[in-house]
TrEMBL record:
The keyword Repressor does not apply. The chain crosses the membrane at residues 38-58, 70-91, 123-144, 186-210, 276-297, 317-335, 381-401, 407-427, 439-464. It comes from the Eukaryota. It is a multi-pass membrane protein. It comes from Vigna radiata var. radiata (Mung bean). Carrier protein involved in proton-driven auxin influx. Mediates the formation of auxin gradient from developing leaves (site of auxin biosynthesis) to tips by contributing to the loading of auxin in vascular tissues and facilitating acropetal (base to tip) auxin transport within inner tissues of the root apex, and basipetal (tip to base) auxin transport within outer tissues of the root apex. May be involved in lateral roots and nodules formation. Pfam families: Aa_trans (PF01490). GO terms for cellular component: endomembrane system; plasma membrane. This is Amino acid permease 3-like. One of its GO terms (biological process) is auxin-activated signaling pathway. GO terms for molecular function: symporter activity. InterPro entries: AA_transpt_TM. It is found in: Cell membrane; Endomembrane system.
């Protein structure tokens, strides 16, 4: 997700400036964004933890279905992003009222009920993402520990360890960081997250290429993991789950309206945004194909759920350590930024319900030597701690990275990337019901809904299958 400015994604409208600069038609400081800046924002937002499971997803589908699926998802995402871009302004595409966030666009086109549904999906998605981040961070922390253990023992020690300890450590860090007011306003977080995500993605790609060269062969098959390596039932569920993992990698529509709100006009913001989306979808799709493809070519049927932990026992171990530390640093900051809208939503509702409660509204100053007084709110302390604990406990009970990623992708992709853009576009352009274009858009939405349900079922089946051999809090890896 795009860390910078994430507070505006979930319904918070920026205030108009009263300075002396030039203003746009809505009274806000004149926007200066271009196609290239918008493309950079999207690419920075997209290249992230989703790339880690791409090799595993390609391994389940094989050399024919996997690239075809990636291309299909990229085409659908580009098309629906264009529909969404057309909904940035309500009514006239040049002079209509601007929608500053995804949720505002849904409200202005489809009404409050749909906006509430949209909000529920977004907040549920954020909760799931926090669980996925906890799992991914613990896997990377274990990979660092295991690679050093294996290196120091000369390969004699199996170096098994329990993931619960690392998840608890990550959770404690997030509890502490969650108490920082306005954490998402730290602009440098976006830069840190972008650098870290590109670092570990580039290392993963480089190691994949190196391993293929070292193997002197390209592993993998046209149909993916063979029956025998997995059962026929597992093959079906994993295929569905792989589609969810690919969907997760393309689930970034909720940030597009906010990025479009940075673009200058003329020309129409929607035209510039469509070009930016095309560039970013091409770049990210090529990157996914390269990272996932070389990962599959390197490992074949044994491609790991997390690409970088699959190299854990091999040299150069220090390079793997750098990559996994980069993942942890990225996820520590991304967890906080992505959870800020959820934190604030509950706190805002509580303050409206109980405006006279000191527990909810009052802030206490805690003096820290050498620092500014820290503002402590008891409700914030309790509520945010409970949320982080819940995410951590669920992650400890279900520490299955690819399953969780697939489920999140299934939930978010259809609703946020397809359904709402299609329905808003129909309203925006006044497409007549039962017309050829209306039927075509509804068929696209229905097909993606079926695909999302299939991916969700596959991910849930994967969780149930993993639970047969996993004992919570006890299983070592």
């Amino acid at each position: 997700m795009l860390e910078q400015g994430v507070s505006r994604i979930y319904g918070e409208v920026p205030e108009a400036s009263n300075g002396t600069q030039n203003f746009d038609d809505d009274g806000h400081v004149k926007r200066t964004g271009t196609m290239w800046t918008a493309s950079a924002h999207i690419i920075t937002a997209v290249i992230g933890s989703g790339v880690l499971s791409m090799a595993w997803a390609i391994a389940q589908l094989g050399w024919i279905a996997a690239p075809s699926s990636l291309i299909l998802f990229s085409v659908v995402t580009y098309y629906t992003s264009g529909l969404l871009a057309a909904c940035y302004r309500t009514g006239d595409p040049i002079t209509g009222n601007r929608n500053y966030t995804y949720m505002h666009a849904v409200r202005s086109h489809l009404g409050r009920m749909n906006a509430n549904f949209c909000g529920c999906v977004q907040y549920a998605n954020l909760f799931g993402v926090a669980i996925g981040y906890t799992i991914a961070a613990s896997i990377s922390m274990m990979a660092v520990k295991r690679s050093n253990c294996y290196h120091n023992s000369g390969g004699k020690d199996s170096c098994k360890m329990n993931s619960s300890v690392y998840m608890i450590s990550f959770g404690i860090a997030e509890i502490v960081l969650s108490q920082i007011p306005d954490f998402d306003q730290f602009w440098w977080l976006s830069i840190v997250a972008a650098v870290m995500s590109f670092t570990y993605s580039a290392i993963g790609l480089g190691l994949g290429i190196a391993k293929v060269i070292g193997n002197r062969m390209v592993k993998g098959s046209l149909t993916g993991v063979s029956i025998g390596v997995v059962s026929e039932t597992q093959k079906i569920w994993r295929t569905f789950q792989a589609l969810g993992n690919i969907a997760f990698a393309y689930s970034y529509s909720m940030i597009l309206i906010e990025i479009q709100d940075t673009i200058k006009s003329p020309p129409e913001e929607s035209k510039t945004m469509s070009k930016a989306t095309l560039v970013s979808v091409l770049v990210t799709s090529i990157f996914y194909l390269l990272c996932g493809g070389f990962g599959y070519a390197a490992f074949g049927d044994s491609s790991p759920g997390n690409l970088l932990t699959g190299f854990g026992f091999y040299n150069p171990y220090w390079l793997l350590d750098i990559a996994n530390v980069a993942i942890v640093v990225h996820l520590v900051s991304a967890y906080q930024v992505d959870c800020q809208p959820l934190f604030r939503f509950i706190e805002k509702v509580a303050a409206q319900k109980f405006p006279d409660s000191d527990f909810i509204t009052k802030e206490f100053e805690v003096r820290i030597p050498g620092c500014k007084p820290f503002k402590l709110n008891l409700f914030r302390l309790v509520w945010r701690t409970i949320l982080v604990i819940c995410c951590t406990v669920i992650a400890m009970l279900l520490p299955f990275f690819t399953d969780i990623v697939g489920l999140i992708g299934a939930i978010a992709y259809w609703s946020l990337t397809v359904y709402f853009p299609v329905e808003m576009y129909i309203v925006q352009t006044k497409i007549r019901k039962w017309s050829t274009k209306w039927i075509g858009l509804q068929m696209l939405s229905a097909a993606c809904f079926v695909l999302a349900m299939v991916a969700a079922v596959g991910s849930i089946a994967g969780v149930l299958d993993d639970l047969k051999v996993y004992k919570p809090f006890m299983t070592d890896y």
